[in-house]
Amino acid sequence: MAKKVAVIGGGSSGLTAIKCCLDEGLQPVCFEKGTDIGGLWNFKEEALPGFASVYRSTVINTSKEMMCFSDFPIPKEYPNYMPHSYIIKYFRMYADNFDLLKHIRFRHRVDSVKPREDFAETGQWNITYTDEEKNESTTEVYDAVMVCTGHHAYPHYPRDSFEGINNFQGKTMHSHDYKDHHGFENKRVVIIGIGNSGGDIAVELSRHAKQVYLSTRRGTWVINRISRGGLPVDIIGNRRMLNLVPSAVKGVIARSELNHRFNHALYGLQPEHGVFGQHPMVNDDLPNRIVTGSLVVKPNIKCFTKTGVVFDNDTVEDDVDVVIFATGYRFDFPFVDKSAMKVENNHVNLYKYVFPPKLDPPTLSVIGLIQPLGAIMPISEIQCRWATRVFKGTTKLPSQDAMFDNIRQKKMDMSKRYYNTPRHTIQVDYIPIMDEIAEQIGVKPNMKKLLLSDPRLALAVFSGPCTPYQYRLMGPGAWKGAKEAIETQWDRITYPTKTRPVPEQMTNGVPGILKLLIVFALIVAVIWKLL
Predict the structure, then answer these.
(1) For residues 17 and 7, is the Cβ–Cβ distance under 8 A?
(2) Residue 347: how many CB atoms within 10 A of its CB?
(3) How does residue 528 score in pLDDT terms, banded at 50, 70 and 90?
């Protein structure tokens, strides 16, 4: 009899969890407390407590070829950077194609996840949930659990940490509750926080409000979605061959490139840390709004007055109408029994960000609890592929000591690279984390085999963008369409912008001499690994 798996959450991680369960012959039951799929990317007119939320103008920061599921390419007609409306369309296509909806119970809220008394022998869980339509509570037994609730549901709202804020007569709110510019016209607005939400909201309101101030303690590096030549920046930056470049060199090059667009110091944004010492902001319009004066960058807030704010440099802005806290989120899993997993100050012990190391047997997994420098959907998918194989018993985890060693090493590496903040507890880089988990299930591209069997494909895998299809070329779950998807990915990248005929360019793609150099580098890299 197939093992019964509880999938908690019907967003992007929950959908791929259902599919991966089906691929492994498991029986998934997905509990979604909302009325529809899509999670964060299903736009709602108002923000609801306990639900992730996006604003009306939200556009994803990762391009379609880098964010798609590994065996289901996004249509070529879709824009490279998709608004939330396109993302939810893609999720619906994915769910329909693999017949996932019949496994989802909508308006079912999970109240508790507890190991059964015989857990050591069975690995089973008691799942208590409420059917909100019937207002009935039920407990069922499951063989495994996949927690797919993300980390954008509980706002981090440090309102009371600011002196004088209780005397402030204006409005304060969290960016979680922001939907669009309506109601902010002719207002003086202060935004606290310089992550992606803070930047997006500041740019949008600077076109409608009387004045916008963006307050930041440390500053940030700002990345444009479009790189030189007009290609998506993550298509250029996420390539295996770049792993051969030392991190320090990449940092210098990245800093130079970002300052080439605009001088971060001149615009009051330059931080003390390097480009890769913080999760950077992705924003295409911020410097353009700063240079018009409609958006002003300010330091951290020292205190509030009745009608305004005083900044750390003792400048004062009065007659402030609204203060928006774009201060991120805290993550928590209040329904999971503390004996199984405990979150403290945005820290939780998970082996490779998926498995609680103390649980034996390992029948609980957390999916998508990561903040990647890159796309999250393919990482969630490969986590699901791994977790379902562990549940099935075809893949084993290492010893508890080895898992704790891995967790400690990751925390140590993170503390060396990033400044200490709750935001930087689940940071990962796209290719390293994908490869790390792919190795656990035997689906990491084998460059030696590819080079010998299909040199052209090997070149595309090594020097081209590390798209998710690479993890379907070989091993368990291999997809026959993976090679074709890699060979046609450039067509899907260029198609949506080629909307009128233009004179043909003299050269197209990678120059021949550069191709030869890449092939040489690939051969050297393989030989080096063999030695």
Answers:
(1) yes
(2) 13
(3) low
